[in-house]
Amino acid sequence: MIQEELFEITYKKNIPLITVFELTNRCNLKCRHCYLPKNDKCSGSELTTEEIKRILSQLKRAGCLHLVLTGGEVFLRDDILDICKYAHKLNFDFRIFSNGNLITEKITRQLAESGISGVEISFYGRESVHDKITGVRGSFEKSINAVNLLKRYKIKVTIKCLLMKSNFNDYPWLIRYARNNGVSYRFDPTVAPKNNGDKSILKHRLSNQQLKRVFGDKDLVGNVSFEDRKGGGFSDWSNDLFCSGGHNSCGIDPYGNVYPCLQLLILLGNLRDKTFSKIWHPGNGSKLTQLRKFKQDDLQVCNKCTYAENCRRCPGLALLEDGNLLGPSSLSCKMVKVQCDKNH
């Protein structure tokens, strides 16, 4: 309840309560569903340690409390533990998203000392399914090892899984694994286009029949989130069809670019050129000011929809996949119809 009230207050006052910070686009896996275009994964100059620390200090002054450190794979950065220590020094509630393959006992011990709130490890199913999706043999075993290490050092672990056609039949196994090992689990049925608009990976999306099973499975109730890879898992707190991106949540990429959300790729500014405060509180006529003025009444098509009350519309997906920030998201439309028809 307190968290929900805090969310509402920060939403109204445009305080960046939640920041999802991509520290690198580099990765040691080759996941078939990756939303990063191949030629973008290692392009540009990543933020340095000192630049990241400066940004974290600016975020703290702006009112940010919740921080998600993600990638790519964050443990490819030699300074990740230093960054964690600094985040702890600033009293952030911070988590890490990782595939777990680079987590060693030494790293785990230092993470435990850093005051981290939790680590979320990507899993896609049993060994053969998982390794096929990641494109790297042995990745499943390394992820399992990471979970065991994190548990041993009493770090909260969540296994998270993007549900696709290729791993759909394995989700009951993942639930059993999570319960048997005392860790949390979360599933996301949202396969998004690549950041450059490439829709080739959408072939991995669940079928309507599979979605019906997702929304009808009591073991998944409360454990399904949307756009979690980019939204940090806080999307469920907003009941607005425009979500909280640009109001009390934001995304930062490895090169210092600031976005309302890492799914809503409207560039607001770069932290190498301006401070976070200047980007977050721009003058009239800016992209962010205009975005904040949009209300549900501006969604002319969605407002007339009989499913609007239950819809989990994502403006980022509407823009990236369908080309219209104020229009419907075809994936959101599909999911809400399946969910409501299932309930009826």
Shape: globular
Assembly context of the chains:
single chain
**SS-based structural class?**
alpha/beta
**Gyration radius, to the nearest Å?**
19 Å
Largest sheet: 9 strands, mixed
* Mean model confidence by pLDDT: 91
Helix content: 25-40%
Please report which band the strand proportion falls in: under 5%, 5-15%, 15-25%, 25-35%, 35-45% or over 45%: 5-15%
Low-confidence segments, ≥5 residues, pLDDT <50? none
Count of DSSP strands: 9
N/C terminus separation: 29 Å
What topology emerges from the helices and strands here?
Elements: H1 2-13, E1 18-22, H2 49-62, E2 66-70, H3 80-89, E3 93-98, H4 105-114, E4 118-122, H5 127-134, H6 139-152, E5 157-162, H7 171-180, E6 184-188, H8 208-216, H9 228-231, E7 249-252, E8 257-259, E9 269-270, H10 276-280, H11 287-293, H12 300-303, H13 315-322, H14 330-343
Parallel strand pairs: 1-2, 1-7, 2-3, 3-4, 4-5, 5-6
Antiparallel strand pairs: 7-8, 8-9
Helix pairs in contact: 2-3, 3-4, 8-14
